[in-house]
UniProtKB/TrEMBL annotation:
It comes from Elysia chlorotica (Eastern emerald elysia). CDD domains: PKD. Residues 20-114 form the WSC domain. SUPFAM superfamilies: PKD domain. Keywords: Signal. It comes from the Eukaryota. The keyword Transcription regulation does not apply. Residues 145-188 form the PKD domain. Residues 1-21 form the signal peptide. This is WSC domain-containing protein.
Amino acid sequence: MSQILGSFLVFVVLLTSPVSGAYEGCFAESVRRRHFAISPGDYSPEITSTMTCRTACGAFDYKYAALAQGKFCFCGNTLPAAGPGSESLCDVDCVAEPTQKCGGLKSVSVHTASKMLAGLQLTSDAVSSPIAVSTLVTIDVSIATGMDVTYQFDYDDGAGRTSNNVTDMLSRTYSVPGEYTIQVFANDVNQTFQDSVAATAVKVEAPPGLVEVECDPVFATFEEGNGCTLTV
Ligand SMILES: *[C@@H]1O[C@H](CO)[C@@H](O)[C@H](O)[C@H]1NC(C)=O
Ligand SMILES: *[C@@H]1O[C@H](CO)[C@@H](O)[C@H](O)[C@H]1NC(C)=O
């Protein structure tokens, strides 16, 4: 019974908690002298959500996005010195996103701004020609826009996806000949967006005559780790 109640509570918390990681709180706002006074240019209040406001402010390099009265979006670079107030003052549902609160009459819901990810590119020095086994493949990844971007890689070596920004993510060696597709998944540190994905192919060759494969006699076919050793 208590277990059922426990999971019910977790469920409720998940449903009502603000957008992941980047929520700063509900801050009192002065309508006459706004702390968050900058509008992110033209936008449609009727379709404003926490995400559209965060990315609209991020596009202008502001640090924070503040939502007021269910649909208005303001940007700023500092949080009000008084600190966040009671959550109950941000009681207006976002017009375009009724599961979220977008401020109140005299309060704003503040989130960190964010930048849409765009222009992800992945390449390696093994793109133009095949590379010999056990040669270091140097990988190059870049993104045109984004904030706090982190990368996860899948090197197609059976190990699956790495965690965020692992050390040595930009180089790999393959000891078994074959064709590999390296994939990169970009997101911001708080996984705000859908992953941006890019891929590049690497062909790993065993130059004839240069590679010796010695297999344990009980194994009929060559497969690394299957009783075989490979010497280049
Ligand atoms: C990620 O979350 C942390 C903790 O809430 C926050 O300080 C940071 O600004 C967030 N970053 C982005 C890009 O949303
Ligand atoms: C992750 O690594 C990339 C490439 O080295 C770097 O530009 C980026 O700042 C790193 N992200 C974080 C959050 O440290």
